[in-house]
Structure formats: structure tokens, C-alpha cells
Automatic annotation (TrEMBL):
Keyword terms of this UniProt record: DNA-binding
Name the record gives this protein: TetR family transcriptional regulator
Domain of life: Bacteria
Residue ranges the UniProt entry marks as DNA-binding: 37-56
PANTHER family associated with the record: HTH-TYPE TRANSCRIPTIONAL DUAL REGULATOR CECR (PTHR30055:SF146), HTH-TYPE TRANSCRIPTIONAL REGULATOR RUTR (PTHR30055)
Domain HTH tetR-type: 14-74
Gene3D superfamilies: Homeodomain-like (1.10.10.60), Tetracycline Repressor, domain 2 (1.10.357.10)
Signal peptide: none
InterPro entries per UniProt: Homeodomain-like_sf (IPR009057), HTH-type_TetR-like_transc_reg (IPR050109), HTH_TetR (IPR001647), Tet_transcr_reg_TetR-rel_C_sf (IPR036271), TetR_C_Proteobacteria (IPR039536)
Amino acid sequence: MTEGLSAHHQRLAQRKREAITSAATKLFLERGYDGTSLAKIAQEAVVSKSTLFKQFPTKAALFEAIVTEYWKGGPDPAALATQPGDLGAGLSTIGRQYADLIGRPAMAALFRIVIAELPRFPELGRAQFDLGKLPYFVSVQHYLEAQHAAGTAVVPDAESATNQFLGMIANYVLWPRMLLDDWSPTPADVGHAVNEAVTTMLARYGRNADDPHHA
């Protein structure tokens, strides 16, 4: 019984947490980061102020939780690094995950908040980079380093290669959304963009016995 109640309370707390982060994102976009109070977020999320303060004692802590939450989900590139093998298959998995991640409206909203508030609150940009973008980037970099170490790819500069791969996908999936309200590529279009990025990476970094540069 106690275990059942504990699980129920955990689910309830998670639902409240999701309601809070959703309400905060909405209000940050509408009113700006500075113009949104924790009390207003609690009201929008339909939770008590004590509940909100218990989970997020400051607005900065709430924003950091939003960043961390939005960058989670799907297969972990770091897990793929422990099983180097088929470079094309691995990049396809990572590419599809990344496209899904940055293609969500919530992710675009997060970027808009950071860009709008950056002049007054540079710490928001730092949180977005340090807690979201950078850990994900490093996990993909480690995957490419593992492929290179295993001899299944030739990636002497994994940092540059990671920039190239993620940049090709983001340039199609995310950045047009920052300027175009009606940017909504179909899943087939996104899949094509990912496949083209993988093909480009394989041409540059895939091991080819006939190419002396890839020996």
C-alpha cells in the first residue's frame, strides 16, 4: 500500500512539474522572462505557490529545469558510443533523434525565449548552452570518437565533424522556424534532410579501403 501511494505521489508530482514548465514556457514567451513572476506561473499551472516553490525556488532554477527537460528524450548518442559499428546506421539513429528533438515546437519556443532575453539575461543563453546544447553535442562527439577508435570510420577531428552533422540537420529543421511561422516540413522532408546529412558524412568520414586517405 505504501509503495502504491508513493508511486501515485510521484506521478502526481511529475504531472504538476510538467504543468509548471509548460506554463512557464508559455508565459516567458508572452510576457518575457523578466515580466513573468513565479506567482503568475503557479496561477497559470493551477498549482499552489508552495508547490511551485518546493520544486523551483527561483525563476533561474525553473528555466534551467526547462532546458534540461527539453533536451532529453530518444536514444542517447552516448549509449551508441559504447557499441561502435555501422557508421551509417548510427548516424541515421542520431540524426532522426536530433531532428525530432529540435523540431518540436517546445524547442523552438525555448530558443525564442533565449534570443529575446539574451541582451538583459545572458545567463539564459549560458544555461541553454551548458545544460542543453553542449551535453548533447559532446555525446555525439564521443560517438564519432568511438567510431574512429574502433576503425569503423576516419574522423580525426570529431568536434568539427559533429558541428557539420548537427548543423546540416538544424539548418533545415530548426533555424527556418525561427523566422517563418508557417515552416512545417513533412516527416518525409525531414527524413530526406537527415538521409542527405548521413550520406554527406559517410562520403567524408566513412572508411573506404580504396581511398588512400582513409587507410
